[in-house]
């Protein structure tokens, strides 16, 4: 049975929650990376993703300027790197070097791919939409890549306070 | 390293993916429930969720009519019920009775709560937005409830083909 509670307390029941990295090209030729948890598919054909990115984020400024970016699914061994880029500001800092993230050139955009991600989606900016207190970035996917390791799994936020880990399904049947 | 691939193939690397139930009141006094995987937080204050719901879904028709609905996090033992409501149409069918889902009255909306969910979020319709091929429903949360069992966990889609299960984090540190 359900018991009434306040909204923030109910929301704490959401974990594990998916997390993605968003890579953008910086004016100096380098790249910036941030972590985003408010992410969902927003269209199937063409494939689009929605990202919730703070007004104050350097990534938001770079997306508005460049009109393109990369969305990556970090792998489950990247918790330390994701924590680094997810908790530090990108202005005046090289988050790629600081985090140890490895990048490689993308196919159709100037932002880099995350070399160790499970998959990368190259996006062009389709729209910015603001239903509440946060701009929602809509990215149309124009190219994709995946890790050569087919069994590499995604990283998740598994508890409040930036606790991140891989997850495994509880296998109930033989068909999984 | 990344290897270029086609977009649908890269997208298959997304699992596990979160899934929610969406409950709406039907004109006959009963309720309808569907499963939605395209879901994310869209605003913190006020709390809003975004849901991608097909144009043809009965739920979409009922949300437009009622301007309110409930979003529930199904618990990890509800795979069978979620599969039922996620793969059958609601017109001319009582999906609550057919699935065995238990409901209870909500506080501020006429749609019901899912009694066995991990948490329920009562929403009023804030906006409908269509960046691509799917309407995105923005719901502003006006009340919340949670399961009295504090350790009950969410259900996830863990593989293509509607494979659903609970998940557990891989514990690397002692602080999780």
Give the domain tally of chain A: 1
Major pleated sheet of chain A: 7 strands, antiparallel
SSE string of chain A, helix = H, strand = E?
EHEEEEEHEHHEEEEEEE
What proportion of the residues of chain A form beta strands (DSSP E)?
A: 35-45%
Q: Which quaternary structure do these chains form?
A: homodimer
Radius of gyration of chain A: 17 Å
What does this entry look like structurally?
The first copy, chain A, is an alpha+beta fold and 176 residues long. Chain A has one domain: Electron Transport, Fmn-binding Protein, Chain A (Pnp Oxidase, Chain A), CATH 2.30.110.10. The first copy, chain A, has helices spanning 7-11, 58-66, 79-87, 95-99, and strands spanning 2-5, 17-18, 20-25, 31-36, 39-43, 48-52, 68-73, 103-104, 113-114, 119-129, 136-147, 156-159, 163-165, 167-169. In chain A, the strands form three sheets. A seven-stranded antiparallel sheet of chain A has the order 4-3-7-10-11-6-5. In chain A, strand 8 and strand 9 form a beta hairpin. The two termini of chain A are 30 Å apart. In chain A, 53% of the residues are buried. The mean pLDDT of chain A is 95.
